[in-house]
Amino acid sequence: MIFMTITEAMQARHSVRSYQDIPLEPAAVSALQKEIDACNKEGGLQIQLVTNEPKAFDSFMAHYGKFSGVKNYIALIGPKSAGLDEKLGYYGERLALLAQSLGLNTCWVAMTFGKGAAKSRCTVASGERLVCVLALGNGVTQGTAHKSKPMDALCRVNGAMPEWFRKGMEGAMLAPTAMNQQKFLISLNGNTVTARSLGGFYSKVDLGIVKYHFEAAAGKENFSWGK
Q1: Regarding beta strands 192-197 and 224-225, do their DSSP bridges make them parallel or antiparallel, or are they unpaired?
Q2: Structure confidence by residue, pLDDT tens digits, 126-180
Q3: Gap between the Cα atoms of 131 and 85, Å rounded
Q4: How far apart are CA 83 and CA 71, in angstroms?
Q5: What's the rounded Cα separation, in Å, for the pair 46 and 193?
Q6: In angstroms, rounded to a whole number, what is the distance separating the alpha carbons of residues 215 and 219?
Q7: Most buried of 30, 65, 210, 223 (most Cβ within 10 A)?
Q8: Chain centroid to CA 54: how far?
Q9: E strand or H helix at 33
Q10: Is the separation of the CB atoms in 139 and 18 below 8 Å?
């Protein structure tokens, strides 16, 4: 297995839609399951790892989304609430970056997979919702980097920009967002950071992903999140 720092994982991770027919290594499955258990406990979620299951990505929508060879995925599930999408974005990206550090590839998938097939392999209790999944495996390629808006278009700073905030923004700029639209704005006032969505497709999931990237790159000890 390959191991890398969180920053290296952010830089290396790109969306991958085509996968090789290679089973996941038992050590990688164990590491992912351990982190999934930690995320579920910390976030009050029901995220589940599904392996050797090709049906969810053998639907019309999956082929429309140009997916091939997907047999493993992480189902992002949790209790229905106003903040569920953002929370699953946050913890889902934590898992995506771990997968990258283990030498695996991922892709966020919201619409172009067979939700019924995925639900048949998962436990989705009454009052819970399957929001999206992370395709997972050994990619045919490593994907390509997305273009980013300039930093000053994505943040607002009251005063001089601290180095930790700059690092956080560099991390946020690497975060995957739906259609690569980067519809978010991160603001700094003192040591309080606020992040808000500017709307768009699956923007609340995107916001959670972006916040995880910012937090991991900036260092949690340097700031607090504001409302």
Answers
A1: parallel
A2: 999 999 999 999 999 999 998 999 999 999 998 899 999 999 999 999 999 998 9
A3: 7
A4: 29
A5: 28
A6: 6
A7: 210
A8: 21
A9: helix 26-43
A10: yes
